[in-house]
């Protein structure tokens, strides 16, 4: 298992420095991670630092709470694409979900998807599974699976609960085969990362990517 190719090397804290982004991108090049995920103001910088490396540049939309208006999310998507983002991790409107307004959620994703597809970008939809019921997760799998997204993502890392093996398995059971799974939130050890991949995750959002790979290096079957 080449665990490095599953990792989105991530820094999203609101106090992120230019030096943090430079370090993140240097590490991503060194370990050949799948992508870096950075705050929107740093997309241009990351894209430049990763040029020629094969590491993708990802950013977040409507982060971390998801309750931005659909029009605001569209504006964020368009700016991220102009700045060079390859992948977009968008938080759904959890207020709409918790108030059972599935029509709002369908409208939101149906306005975003044509832009993403026209520009041939990857979209990952964050549903914050740690604060949802199994029924809500299943409905999300149905809605976003039908919308044709690229990845359903467990968590922002900002809620009280992050990724779990159980959530990944539930995603796997209810998503169409074409929709991949990204686990994120609280992934700090090689053992947990491997469990998530074995459960069906095809990307891992980690701020501890380097530490995880250092742990993995002890196992000759990995990196």
TrEMBL record:
Catalyses which reaction(s): 2-deoxy-D-ribose 5-phosphate = D-glyceraldehyde 3-phosphate + acetaldehyde
Matching Gene3D superfamilies: Aldolase class I
Main localisation: cytoplasm
An annotated Gene Ontology molecular function: deoxyribose-phosphate aldolase activity
Keyword Cytoplasm among UniProt keywords: yes
Cell location: Cytoplasm
Family the UniProt entry places it in: Belongs to the DeoC/FbaB aldolase family. DeoC type 1 subfamily.
Name of this chain's protein: Deoxyribose-phosphate aldolase
Species whose genome carries this gene: Panacibacter microcysteis
Taxonomic lineage: Bacteria, Pseudomonadati, Bacteroidota, Chitinophagia, Chitinophagales
